[in-house]
Amino acid sequence: MATLSDVARRAGVSPATASRVINGSSKPVTDELRERVLAAVAELQYVPNAHAQLLARSHRSAVGVIVHDVSDPYFAEITRGLQRVATDQGRLLMICNSYRDPDRELEYVELLRGHQVAALILAGSGYHDEAFTRQLNEKLAAYEATGGRVAVIGRHEHSGDAVMPDNRTGGYLAGRELCELGHRAIGVVAGPRILTTTTDRLAGLRQALGEQGRDLPERRIRYAEFDRDGGAEATARLLDADPELTAIVALNDSMAIGALATLRARSLPVPQRVSVIGFDDMPIARDVTPPLTTVRLPLVDMGVRAMSLVLGAETLSPRVELLPAELIRRDTTGPAARSPRPAPRARRADTAS
Amino acid sequence: MATLSDVARRAGVSPATASRVINGSSKPVTDELRERVLAAVAELQYVPNAHAQLLARSHRSAVGVIVHDVSDPYFAEITRGLQRVATDQGRLLMICNSYRDPDRELEYVELLRGHQVAALILAGSGYHDEAFTRQLNEKLAAYEATGGRVAVIGRHEHSGDAVMPDNRTGGYLAGRELCELGHRAIGVVAGPRILTTTTDRLAGLRQALGEQGRDLPERRIRYAEFDRDGGAEATARLLDADPELTAIVALNDSMAIGALATLRARSLPVPQRVSVIGFDDMPIARDVTPPLTTVRLPLVDMGVRAMSLVLGAETLSPRVELLPAELIRRDTTGPAARSPRPAPRARRADTAS
DNA sequence: TCCCTGCGGGAAAGGGCTTTCACTGCGGTA
DNA sequence: TACCGCAGTGAAAGCCCTTTCCCGCAGGGA
């Protein structure tokens, strides 16, 4: 690889001058030298060594991002928001996938710190895991102590800046909607129980049912991976245990799509026999059949705000922005098929008639 | 940020010794010193400056990847394959989105070269653009001249190692299937015509029709963005121009989903009235309704192979791996509603009866 | 004419790390 | 006893840039 000295030598100037030309320094350089340098750069196909540059200027510019998985639409949307602001400010993003592995998250914090990022953004649910949370906070604190900025999206652990989708209210909206449609036998297809996102959404759901004087028994909840296959499998288990279910809440849209697949496989019409409601409103939600009723989160906006927090002026007190959830009614929800209000024996009578 | 010298000072050793302990060098260090160093590292929360390290060891390790858009499932799958091999070998991946902007692709080649990546992988269709192709090849050649390895996925331009999905045969399979089902009026929802992927797939389709003694007139093709909305819009234009269409080939699955949306909006039942066939077989294809008939490409495998090529031993002659396309029959295709073989007037008689 | 100013350019000092090389003791061989 | 070799450590030379500092020189004011 050609180096700056190579360029300088070829152009017959000092490395200092070559550097000034290449970086458009404010120091003036005569046109003649400038051209000689530029010519040398072109001939040698010179590209500055980024590491040497970053070492020489102690200018931290890049921003580190840790998400669970960029190819998951939830994070793809958030990342789009992050990217937008970063690009506007000429910042490079380093994106890392933790695949929901806490240890990998810890490793990536170190890695990004080592890469001298100006800021760090952690997106995605936190974990119910004391030890991990403490460790993570220590690392983040150490990073912040050296002037790094940190913001989290959708997780509580961190004591600094945060962008929080209102998961609880989202869960509440889903629950209330189903209650108003007359559903009693509601099953929940949930993500891993170790994730705070799962428990937050469940809490909202519980609250909605509670207001109707009902509870959400554990047997009506199945925990699985937060993806399509997890949703399909959890729905199957739910249905096996309780075939009378008239509604299913999936704690994210991927799982909802899995639920829809299982229902289709079992020939249970949606929404006539079973209603389904998702969470997140990812783009594909409009395109499944029937189009998915879901709780919308302003994903792109979450990314925009987190990046703005982290690149904006530092404030004394940490800022927490709570972004609202919104129910999007589409076609996977409808009135409960038949009210299971009458006690089970009554229903048996029904069936007999 | 604490530096290595800080650690060394605190541990009462030289930076050299500290470095040896931290990197597990082969040079032996007494246990006592080792422990002192480790303790200092922990106390100072020391993380090595990655740029300084990369500068000091001339060891190139990271691999650069340029894709059109990681959040597009097509590239998400390929990336998964790339990632798998890279992780196995302890390599870091730097992933850049070009968003199908040739200039940005050029820039990223430079950027990644500047970051001293050991290899470069370009995934995604090439462009019908002589000037760009030449420029890109120059840059890649310059990079290879300094010991860099390059592989491309799904593009012809580059003269070196390549992994090529068999787009042409894929198009052929789609065309033949539709012919065998008796379709005559076939419309094509195509990606941007500047992309070689678009023209390759079209060429295969043409060949299949050609074998039936038919051609594919331009008026039966609509070019649009390679995404859901592009597909929806192109389908609408196609249908407006030619309401008699009995089949639509979408040149990727995202566009097919858009096509399905438009057909649903117009109450044209799939596949009874119109058959639809997609391309790529991305995961969501099974979950739309009806499940999408499509041409499968081994996306993950493409990633695996490209990364293996680039990290494996260098060979004299460039290797090109052609990966097969396969037709996956699902439920969006069926026999043509009524054979348009009889001339239009005959059909009008039909309708009258 | 002399001095000061300011412009254009180069020398050199880092930036944080790895690694070679040289040095000090030590046990072991002739 | 004299010497060789080696384990364990530190000094210092890079890696490739950026940027400060300084120098020479030409032009303008006194």
What does this structure look like?
2 copies of one chain form a homodimer. Chain A is α/β, with parallel strands linked by helices. Chain A starts with a helix and ends with a helix. The relative contact order of chain A is 0.12. In chain A, the strands form 3 sheets. Chain A has a 6-stranded parallel beta sheet with strand order 2-1-3-4-5-11, sandwiched between helices. A 4-stranded parallel beta sheet of chain A has the order 7-6-8-9, sandwiched between helices. The first copy, chain A, has 3 domains: 4-56, lambda repressor-like DNA-binding domains (434 Repressor (Amino-terminal Domain)), CATH 1.10.260.40; 63-165 and 300-324, Response regulator (Rossmann fold, 3-Layer(aba) Sandwich); 167-297 and 328-338, Rossmann fold, CATH 3.40.50. Chain A has helices at 4-11, 15-23, 31-44, 50-56, 73-88, 102-114, 130-145, 167-180, 196-211, 228-241, 253-265, 299-311, 344-352; strands at residues 63-67, 93-97, 119-123, 149-153, 161-165, 186-190, 221-223, 247-250, 275-277, 294-296, 320-323, 326-328. In chain A, helix 5 packs parallel to helix 12, helix 6 (102-114) packs parallel to helix 7 and helix 10 (228-241) crosses helix 11. The model of chain A is unreliable at 339-353 (pLDDT under 50). Chain A contains 13 helices and 12 strands. In chain A, 46% of the residues lie in helices and 14% in strands. The radius of gyration of chain A is 27 Å and the shape is elongated. The first copy, chain A, binds a DNA duplex (30 and 30 nucleotides) through helix 2 and helix 4.
